[in-house]
Amino acid sequence: MEKLKDAFDFRDFSRAEQVGFTIFSIFLLLFPWLGAGSFVKVVMIQFLLFSLFGMGWNTIGGYGGQVDLGKAQCVGIGAYTVALTMVWWKIPFWVSMPMGILLAVGYSFMIGYPLFRLKGHYFAIATIATSLVLQDIFANWKLVGAAKGIELPIHDHPDFLYMQFKSDTYYYYFIMVLFYVAIFYMNWFRRSKLGYQLRMIKDDEDAAESLGIDIRWCKIKAYSISAFVAVGGGFMAVYNLYIDPVSVMDLDLSIKIALMAMLGGAGSLWGPIIGAAFLVPLDRFLGSWLGGQKGLIGLDFMIYAMLIMVVSAYQPRGIWGIIEQFRRKGS
Amino acid sequence: MKYRKTVLFSIVVFLSLLLIVPPLFAQEKEIRIGVLYPLSGAAATIGRDLQRAAELTAEIINNKTPGVDIPMAQWAGIPNLGGAKIKLIFADHRGEPDRGADLAKRLILDDKVVGLMGAYHSSVTKTVSAVAERYGIPMINDSSTSPELTKRGLKWFWRTTPHDDIFNKDLFELLKGLTEGKVKGVKAIPKDQLKNVAYACENTEWGSSVAKSIEGFAKEYGFNITKKILYNANSPDLTSEAKALVSVKPDVMLFASYLSDSLLMIRTLKGMKASTNFFWGQDAGFEMADFVKTLGTDTNGVLTRTVFIAKIAKVKKVAGQVNALYKEKYGDDLTGATARSVVGVQTWAYVLNKAGSTDPKAIQKACNEINIPANDLVMPWAGVKFDATGQNILGRGLIGQYQKTKEGMIDLEIIYPFELATANMIYPFPGWK
Asked: Is A36 near chain B, with CB under 8 Å?
């Protein structure tokens, strides 16, 4: 009960943050009724999805300081579990989704054990390696559709059990609920014992060890917790009705997840959300507006890359770092 | 003072009206079709070529175009829709299935298109067609060749191009023809010179479908597969894949590659001085204009399956006419991929004209009943007519070979079907010396 209270307790945030979060929440709740076009809705869904991914990454990457460049593995496991169980045995989404999360957590725990023998860059490289190996296995494993991927059957009528709706509004509210579960969980996590231990490990591993913290065990726990991003993978499967190793397990996806969290501000509750709010619309809108325009093709990539470079050069702690810097100057 | 204010106000009102009113009067009826192609990313070159071909075809339909002997060139709009013009709205999916699905929603719900076309990558076509199916909007696929696409029981999906099973059968017919002495300019080859087959296909939906299909036909026609490789088309290095291919010394090398990986593969194989008797690429990268522009005479002897070769103009007048327009405008010949875009937009125009309405149900009915005669097409096909699965049953493939001319240029000659052959086949593959 105490833990539940902690999850909803935002009192240690500044007044401005509390007000901002409330306004933002009201906006999210009312968004589908504000008359925005369907593409804006699609972009909002992507934003919420990537915020969720970023928050998952933040447990180990942000609070724990372990740069994980293989988060797409968990996304992929979630997506494949939902898709395969649905195609093979017609298992409803609501059953297969928790199964996917459990599998991803189990998998992360398993590979976390050997992975956390490594530190720093070596750990980051190892996460890329395991991610590429898993993707290759799925790309060649005929039972799971190999490189051709898995296509989910399209239902003629809306079906809540299998999460098939014609209107994106349903998907929007579903991912929004997941987004809030993740926020409240992360709000609790950052003040949990493990949260403090991880920050200590991030600052100084030797000092943490001297205080009796089992570093490797803490990292493995956090790494396994971060596997909850598998829920987003399951969502991608039912939302797009098609998955293949490239769309749900690719290194690009892992890098995007890490990039959004880092750009927004790793190790802060709002960081991944700000990162996703910045990069997802930039990527989707620029791509959509400029992508089809003659003579402007490729310009969206340049603007996207330029902004990332500017932010990283100006403030390595990301956009949240910039905001805090201004705030300090102001006070 | 009051007088000046009134004059000023009148001028402002008049100018505002000038801005608003003319579009109201001048606005012609237009029919929007959403076209999804990879306009940026790894397949951007192909996507832009497809876009040009689609635009040119829309121009031919929307304006009277003298010198093109296809009825639609004299339409100046869709006749049964009061001369309404076709407006193509392009969207760039970058080869990403989820982005394709998102853009399809934008086109359907925000841009209010009457139908969709694209998406080149079979994997993207899968998600886009799923969106079209959900919203009950017709999609005519011009350029994705994975056989699975028309085996899904969709009600709102039609495909004009033949698929990879048809193309791969052509390939094995050509190999069989070589052993039987049917190929122009080549005496019968003993089968043991062509027995061992190795393939390298890119590892998404399309490439792996091709791989599966090759394996099936190899078994049926009695060839041995000695090496199977699936690789990432975006990979910056293909040395290990090329080494693996060369190591088994195959008689026949087969590829399913997009543009950048096909270039990289050939350069890597050239660097290894790889040799084989028969070198074939499954369309896509192998038949893009930039393939020859970049590799030049290194392509001599390379075979590619396709659906269009500029030389087809010798036997098909309209192909030459449309090709001439395209070449005049963009400087390149039409290729199999770009010619499919032409047929895609053309099929849309014929379907809309037959439907006489933009109602999805009417278009669906028209698609199921359409029968475009062979003479109206730039392709060497018997026409466009869809079966119950939405597949065009009148399409066929060609196999071409890049051949060095006396002037040191590269021409794509037709080798298969045997009766359409425009040159003697170069056999064995000369390699890179």
From this structure: no
